[in-house]
Amino acid sequence: KQEVTQIPAALSVPEGENLVLNCSFTDSAIYNLQWFRQDPGKGLTSLLLIQSSQREQTSGRLNASLDKSSGRSTLYIAASQPGDSATYLCAVGEWDTGRRALTFGSGTRLQVQP
Amino acid sequence: DAGVIQSPRHEVTEMGQEVTLRCKPISGHNSLFWYRQTMMRGLELLIYFNNNVPIDDSGMPEDRFSAKMPNASFSTLKIQPSEPRDSAVYFCASSLNLGNHEQYFGPGTRLTVT
Questions:
Q1: What gap in Å lies between CA B42 and CA B20, rounded to an integer?
Q2: Which of A50, B29, B48, B62 is least buried, going by the fewest C-beta atoms within 10 A?
Q3: Which of A25, A32, A29 has the alpha carbon at shortest distance from A52?
Q4: Min distance B82 CA to chain A CA atoms (Å)
Q5: Any A CB within 8 A of B33 CB
Q6: CB contact under 8 A, A100 and B106
Q7: Do B105 and A36 touch (CB under 8 A)?
Q8: Tens-digit pLDDT string for chain B (114 aa)
Q9: Which one of A6, A102, A103, A106 makes the best mutation probe of the B interface by having the most chain B beta carbons within 10 Å?
């Protein structure tokens, strides 16, 4: 069974810092990996989608990398801002099981202090 | 596009009552997913549909839970009878198709069963 782990569980940084959120998964047979943002009491907003054949995706100040062989992904946030404060969730789409849905990590709660 | 629409946004009901959650996917999307989020278990897939057909319901916790998708623009998740441990936020998501496509989430329905 696929397991997704996110480290750290919580992170507090001063505004302007560059930071890295980590995601690891146990079964490398995935077809994609998606990073989401969730604000308190809100739904999930998709940030980046990386296909299994890709190594990274970029959107603005965000860069996500994928290393399937080692079962790892990182989300890099450059020049963090207070508005980046949220919970960041990593989710993988499984392949071998035929299950075409996402398995989520438990998230990293980010606080960017002004 | 209005995005994925869910109703109601909040539902408070008494144990034993029937609860029906509703979802309208993004127009043109062929795949629909129901997830549940709790503090203890995080985000879990309950069931997903493709072209209105249920593909995998292995995440449905008990027979008290059922889901339907009578047409491409509407899905329901029903709990009958409801129990306090069903209290959670229920999310609906849609994607263009199964596989390598981004999932878009609705705002969720916060269910409280007393």
A1: 22
A2: B62
A3: A32
A4: 22
A5: yes
A6: no
A7: yes
A8: 689 999 999 999 999 999 999 999 999 999 999 999 999 999 999 999 999 999 989 899 889 999 999 999 999 999 999 999 999 999 999 999 876 678 999 999 999 999
A9: A102
